[in-house]
Amino acid sequence: MPEGHTIHRLARDHHRDFAGERLTVSSPQGRFVDGAKLLTGRTLKSVEAHGKHLFYNWSAGKTLHVHLGLYGKFRLHRPPIPEPRGQVRLRVVGSEKAFDLNGPNTCRVITAKERAAVQARLGADPLRDDGDFEQVWSRIGSSRAAIGTLLLNQSVIAGVGNIYRSEVLHLLGIHPETPGQSLDRQQINSLWSELKALLEIGVKYNRIIIAEPSEIGKPRSRMNRDERLLVYKQPVCSRCDTEIEDWLLGGRRVFACPKCQLR
DNA sequence: TTGATTGTTACCGG
DNA sequence: TCCGGTAACAATCA
Q: Of A99, A126, A155, A262, which is least surrounded by CB within 10 A?
């Protein structure tokens, strides 16, 4: 479900909806009981996103680390709060709203040291102010691995997932199997700035919207739901009508136009 | 019931 | 050390 845009939006919304008040934290299915005990009755101070990771900073210096993985999902509630649906790992209840967390890859209370270790393994995040292009350039420009694999590696760029990797490479006409070190600085710079722009659009509209450069700025009707992805799971190329190819790269299905994205 | 999935980690071998 | 491949884990839905 989530790439970086979803996570940053969640951080923003959860901060808006829950920060500053005493919260009740529980673990309806009995998992994460110790963590829930540590947090309940405390105040949420801030919520921060780095790539696909969420860090909830609570009073008394506690940090809740959440990673949704493939299946993780938040459900937002208003009173009356419904019965838990499925395996609810974490339930947070405030005065106006509540949320449940199902199926996360990670949900745990961590120390400042553990948090630093998590973030040390994450690369630059295009949605963060501290996202550093020089770090991205040095990682990609010196690697023999395929750019399609590097874009999924969260220690290279944090927040890109399987949809954005295919879409950004298609927009820039780069073949996914191209080794990172055979891209020039200009191309890597374009990758970085394009990802930043795409992710910001994703945060704004709460879904992934890929527009052809020629479509940007045109009336909304040109950007309807059918046009939001240009290669990912598409039958033909939006530019040249050639059949889209797909294969496994880095353990995930990648999509590319054989004509617009030459090796 | 089967297959697929907007993810990550650990481990092994080259 | 880098890099690719595989398995394991998480949960839901068509």
A: A262
